[in-house]
Design goal:
This protein has 3 helices and 5 strands; from the N terminus they run H-E-E-E-E-E-H-H. It is globular. The structure holds zinc ion (ZN).
Length: about 170
């Protein structure tokens, strides 16, 4: 296993749509295991493939994050099948480190996809986990969480990101 470099929002790969995965092969299994390791190291709740430079329709999420019992799952070619109610809560992204904002999301989602064995999987989630699923789904369509905000708010966050980065480089 090896750690992958998490791309930040300045990398154009984050604007790419995740391509549908037709074959689950050894390389994909290895990629997912590296994504798990990278996500845990970064203390993230989820990671989409384009965040590590692969524009593929796949994300990983720790569905146990709220209970503290790690439960890492892979969803290949995910599709949201239901969204209900709304909720506003703070959100961040490993590709926009240290920048957080309140985003309106569905409070309840259902999604389906395929796991690494090629079996269909379905998840129902509420609250934080529902938010994580929606956040990762957006990555796969080339969207970042701050695209849900007004351009004024987004520009404030972009300036904050750049300032933090400058401080980190100094
Ligand atoms: Zn993200």
């Amino acid at each position: 296993m090896s750690l992958l470099r998490v791309r930040n929002w300045l990398d154009p790969v984050l604007r790419k749509k995740g391509e549908r995965i037709e074959n689950i092969d050894e390389n994909l299994v290895r990629l997912v295991s590296d994504m798990y390791e990278t996500m845990l190291e970064a203390k993230g709740a989820g990671l989409a493939a384009n965040q590590i430079g692969e524009a593929k329709s796949l994300f990983v999420v720790d569905i146990g994050i709220e209970t503290g019992e790690r439960n890492l799952v892979t969803v290949i070619n995910p599709v949201i099948t239901a969204m209900e109610d709304e909720e506003i809560a703070e959100e961040g992204c490993l590709s926009i480190p240290e920048v957080f904002a309140e985003v309106k999301r569905a409070r309840h989602v259902e999604l389906k996809g395929v796991d690494l064995k090629g079996n269909e999987v379905r998840y129902e989630a509420e609250g934080f986990l529902a938010r994580a699923f929606q956040h990762e789904m957006e990555h796969l369509s080339g969207t970042l969480f701050w695209d849900n905000l007004s351009s004024v708010k987004r520009n404030i966050l972009k300036r904050k990101f750049k300032k933090l980065r400058k401080e980190a480089d100094a």
